[in-house]
Amino acid sequence: MICELCGGTTVHKKVRRQHWLEGKLYIVENVDAEVCLECGDRYFHATTLDRIDALLKQEHSVKQRLDVEVVSL
After folding, report:
1. Could you give the CA distance from residue 13 to residue 70 in angstroms, rounded to a whole number?
2. Residue 3 forms part of a structural domain
3. N or C end of the chain, less CB within 10 A?
């Protein structure tokens, strides 16, 4: 795949994704993505994002809880 941002080449990687659903922030690990070797931009297939939504809408195990600060510029 070619990066839409810089034209670089992408490779498949497992990444950590910040994912918002119904007003809650989740950190999802081991997510399939295409990552640009030049600029680092990440691309997720729609089916992958749908799988994340489905997982989070059902009862799921929680690996860790984090305290997150929200700041504004």
Report:
1. 28
2. no
3. C
